[in-house]
Amino acid sequence: MKSYDLIVIGAGTSGAYLAQRMARRGHRVLVLEQASKETVGTKYDIFHIEQREFSRLEIPRPKGGDAAWAFEFEKNYNADPLTKFPKCQMNPMVGLHMHAYTLLLDELAQHAGAEIRYGARFTDFLFDDGGKICGVKATENGEDTAYSARIVADCSGMAAAGRTKLPADYGVETAKLTDEDMFYVVLRYVTLNDPKDYLDGSTFWAYYKSWIAPCADPHGAIIGIGACHSFDYAEQVFAEMEQTVPLPDYTLDHIERGRTPYTRSPYSMVGDNFLVSGDAGNLTKSVNGEGVTSSMVQLQIATEVLDRALKLGDTSRRALWDINRKYNRTQGAEFAMLRALLVGVVNAANFDEFQYAFESGIISDELLNAMNGAPLPAARVFDAVKGFAGGIAKKRIRTSTVKAALAALKNAVAISDHYKHFPETPEGFEQWCAKADALYQKIGKIR
Ligand SMILES: Cc1cc2nc3c(=O)[nH]c(=O)nc-3n(C[C@H](O)[C@H](O)[C@H](O)COP(=O)(O)OP(=O)(O)OC[C@H]3O[C@@H](n4cnc5c(N)ncnc54)[C@H](O)[C@@H]3O)c2cc1C
Questions:
Q1: What is the pTM of this model?
Q2: How far, in Å, from the CA of 40 to the mean position of ligand 1?
Q3: CA spacing 20 to 30 A to 345: which of 27, 150, 266, 307?
């Protein structure tokens, strides 16, 4: 049986990124990908990466003319439900073709020394006499095969083919995603009928969780909506949005639909000789369900820990625990905090309150820029507080919404603080989980 240091399930963006980073460090890496090379990364066409992420994550930045490059833009508008008071943030974004970018990352992994077997489907784990993972079973061209591995990483996307096959007591949650744990995304690729409407950036309507953004065709656009519950519900919200938002006149070219995890990541992402990442570990952003770069943040941590563990010859859950600790105390804490805030505010605020927040200066360009790390001038904080107080006095903001917003803030601080105190070692993990469960119970889910 062929033997590897690391077997990665899935050659999507997460699997390819991990494979490349581990192969570059001299480890023997095999990636099993059930799709063919021609169909990998074809679940939808266009996705975005913020320009600043390319250097932070050390990933290739395609340019105009490259197969993966589609378009780029800098202006990101956030708008009220009536689109009368849009706010603008400058945040350069690059639009990429998912299939071509996945192939680019796959090629980089191969170049670094990783082996990728397309058309090879992981079917189960191999366990040693002590019940610990020691390899995988796979099916290739209708034939059953097996490979031994010191570590197996599940990067198989939402299906979580590896994680959900683990024994329940392996130390990683094994539940499959339910319909309520996903974000349903509908993308309308359209041609804009009037040149005056050609886009110079994207516009996001938080109230409807909808947006219009450029696409590869400069005369076109992608009108997107992301909603909980179902595709039907997403269409229902889209129909409501069309009633208030003055969308440009367009001709529909085609529609793409996709789902993305919209729930917390497992509290522990490691087991003995095991790691879960990417959509398989629900590592998507809690604000919008995007997951390409947020998974890579965890994988940067994972690479350092796996590399050290392989070199020291100890790949037990305890040895890999630093992945949990470092991730949960940083991005994990940030995502948990944003989830609590978002759920509280979005569930409580109604149409008029959203409209008032934009109109009154509670939401300003500077406040939105601050969310991307820019300094927030004191005058804008003052405007926001004044707008809020004025809204209560003029009865434009209901007392129930104020209460819900304050409760959301309290929950956000509590859950973030809890994640920042994620246990140093597996000791104390169960108590930590019990408290986290109780906090998530209070936070609830987005409607
Ligand atoms: C419509 C839509 C738009 C989105 N837009 C953005 C965006 O703009 N920016 C962003 O960051 N994110 C976006 N996302 C989310 C993003 O697509 C995912 O978070 C990301 O692609 C996850 O990558 P992954 O490698 O973890 O999983 P995947 O890309 O799903 O890759 C998993 C791979 O594993 C393979 N696999 C599965 N089971 C097995 C098995 N048993 N054996 C072998 N191989 C297997 C699959 O074939 C697949 O190739 C969007 C999602 C949707 C639905």
A1: 0.95
A2: 10
A3: 266
